[in-house]
Amino acid sequence: MGDRRAVVIGAGITGILSARELLLSGWDVVVLDAAHVGAGSSSRTAAGIRQQFSTPGTVRGMRYCVDFYTRFAEETESGESPIVQNGYLFLQADDAAMEAARARVAMQQAVGLKEVEALDADALRAQFPWVSDELAGATWCPTDGFLRPHVVYSDGAARVRSLGGELRQRSPVTGARVEGGRITTVTTPLGEVGGDLFIDCTNAWTARVGALLGASPLEVAPLKRYLWFVARGDAMSGPTLSSMPLTIAPSGAYCRPENGDTMLMGKKHKTAADRDFTYDDQDFVQPDFSHRAGIDAAPFSLWMELAEAIPDLADFAGVNATTAGYYATTPDHNPFLGFDARRPNLIRAVGFSGHGAMLGPFTARVVQALADAGTNLDEVLIDGEPVELGTFALGRTYDHREAMVI
Fold this sequence. Notes:
- This protein is of the alpha+beta class and 406 residues long.
- The chain folds into 2 domains: 205 residues, FAD/NAD(P)-binding domain (3-Layer(bba) Sandwich); 168 residues, D-Amino Acid Oxidase, Chain A, domain 2.
- The protein contains 9 helices and 22 strands.
- Strand 11 and strand 12 form a beta hairpin.
- Helix 1 runs parallel beside helix 5, helix 1 packs parallel to helix 9 and helix 2 crosses helix 9.
- The two termini are 40 Å apart.
- 50% of the residues are buried.
- The mean pLDDT is 95.
């Protein structure tokens, strides 16, 4: 192995894939996690993966991510693919929404996403006959879809070990030694861990971990998010449900197949930042968001909201499960990727606003490029194409809010 040692803090998808990329670049790597691999948001995600973003650089980065995930099984022992390419379907309510959607599609096609298309009302219903007749159209990309996150972090952790990396679970960072402004070691209950470079991949935990490291405060708010599961019953055939794309209604509600019998659904909702949450709090379900709380609770309202766009959903058998976790949300819904201003050997890779799983391969490539350069970069090359990093800079002004946050 090399003579450069990196300490990755956090063993979710971001941390595991960053460790893999650093190992392939010749770094010695140890990964620390306060609990265990995938214990945080990575195991509680809707796991959509799409290239339909409103920022050109993110579109380019996500093209790389989709390609990475389609090839990931080639380097793992299980050989299981982590990606299900059922596509992403953004439904549009009216002509004005369709006009804006067509402009996004033109930009996405211009930066290489050739397969994305805008469907008018007739084309939409011809291809997806289960949508409402009231819709004006949609944007559709067949190479989008959703991930099986446990495959990414579990097989990824095995890959890290096979490359010579060390993984220490139940090793929360409790402090740090600093010399000349640079971190030399981090403290854990199992002892100190030294390194030349440290990478913060703790996402919703970044405020408390950053404070322990003496790092700059970042505008990352841990926000509770819920997912619900609806049993199909006899309302739709199993093959029809299994083949459905991840579908976003005009209201922002979304759904996708979990399997041939169950639909997963979710929607962004207003909530206060929960800055002192614990691991157990991830799974706490507030009564108004529980599927057991009656027909006035959030999941039943969401179910009926989605049924306006997908009428067959109204006849599904019922909501039968609720899961919860935290988004690490930034003001513009773009992550922070770069060296910390106060700790020049600390890379922050946090604030993914619900997109950490899908962005994982791109994030890992950025982390590796920053690590090898030893300084912040204006751009990275992804498959030979430059991707500007200003959108993700730690000290940025929030000039471009990512408009598509599902």
